[in-house]
């Protein structure tokens, strides 16, 4: 389990680093938060896969570690705040009373 844990840590750091390098404008949170989330996701996903597979398939555990790390890291992505994106397509101001439907009497 020690070698697998080291592999999980490496997978988490690579996933977090790749996310920060590939899409830096999507991750407005602190770099430590992104790397920490990727690392925690890799360790948690790898440990769960290791115990579910009873330690027989370390490659499956490492793959599950990468998947969990990627999924949890993607939760931090904010493409709506990325540079070059105008947030004007969302949250249109409503006219007073335009959202209500009146039933004919």
UniProtKB/TrEMBL annotation:
Transmembrane segments: 6-26, 33-51, 57-77
Annotated segments matching region Disordered: 83-105
UniProt entry keywords in alphabetical sequence: Membrane, Transmembrane, Transmembrane helix
Residue ranges with Basic residues bias: 87-105
Organism domain of life: Bacteria
Descriptive protein name: Uncharacterized protein
Organism of origin: Streptomyces rubellomurinus (strain ATCC 31215)
Taxonomic placement: Bacteria, Bacillati, Actinomycetota, Actinomycetes, Kitasatosporales
């Amino acid at each position: 389990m020690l070698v697998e844990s080291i592999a999980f840590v490496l997978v988490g750091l690579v996933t977090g680093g790749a996310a920060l390098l590939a899409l830096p404008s999507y991750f407005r949170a602190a770099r430590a938060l992104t790397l920490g989330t990727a690392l925690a996701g890799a360790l948690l996903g790898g440990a769960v896969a290791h115990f579910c597979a009873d330690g027989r398939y370390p490659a499956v555990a490492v793959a599950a570690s990468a998947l969990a790390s990627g999924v949890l890291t993607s939760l931090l992505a904010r493409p709506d705040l990325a540079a070059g994106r105008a947030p004007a397509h969302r949250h249109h101001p409503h006219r007073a009373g335009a959202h209500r439907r009146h039933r004919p009497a």
